[in-house]
Amino acid sequence: MAHTLYDRYPDFSEGRLAKIRSHVVSRASCAVVARELGLGDRLGTFAPELAPDELERLAHNRNVLAALLEAVLGALFLQHGFAAIEDAVVAAFDERIEYALTSHVDHKTELQEVLARSGRQVSYSVLEIEGPPHDRHFTCAATVDGERLGVGQGRSKKAAEQEAAREALERLAA
User: Fold this and answer.
1) Distance CA 168, CA 152 (A)
2) C-beta separation of 105 from 23 below 8 A
3) Domain boundary among 78, 102, 126
């Protein structure tokens, strides 16, 4: 991905390319690509001993899908080499590249950069965790100089922190 992004966008700064690459190869993006390739649906072929409800849960789990994609890409690389699979891998991630180019994807980094200019820092705290282990819902806060500037919710701690950072950015811009 780094090679492709560098070739496609030679005028982008190193920082911008790093942010785009980070999003494109993130667990969330890998899960999306795995879903688009139907890897979750094929999981039953390789694990027929799993109960249907367990197979269904695993086939839709973001972490499982991302790990499955990474395993498949690793196996393809070992079997065929980099040059043989490069174009297909890039093509599979093209929509994720476009999304990263057109969407703001990392509010936490942006907030950290904004605050660093004035010598300030943000800290995140978990306010609440709800739901059973397989279906958690987090509420997190972004605090700056003792003031809670944002609160966010999400299905993961990271997603809730991103929402809290987004809200904090909005408040700082107002």
Assistant:
1) 10
2) yes
3) 102
- Note the pTM of the prediction, 2 decimals: 0.62
Torsion sign (Cα): 171, 169, 167, 111? negative
Please indicate, yes or no, whether residues 49 and 128 belong to a single structural domain of this protein: no
165 shares a domain with 116? yes
* Tally of domains within the chain: 2
CA angle 108, 114, 115 (to 5 degrees): 90
Render pLDDT for 74-119 as a digit per residue (tens, 0 to 9). Answer: 999 999 999 999 999 999 999 999 988 877 667 898 898 889 888 9
Mean per-residue pLDDT of the chain: 91
Cβ neighbours around 163 below 10 Å, total: 21
Q: Which residues contact 142 (CB under 8 A, 6 or more apart)?
A: 111, 122, 123, 124, 148, 149, 150, 151, 152, 161, 164, 165, 167, 168
pLDDT reading at 35 higher than 90? yes
Q: Identify the three-state secondary structure at position 48.
A: coil
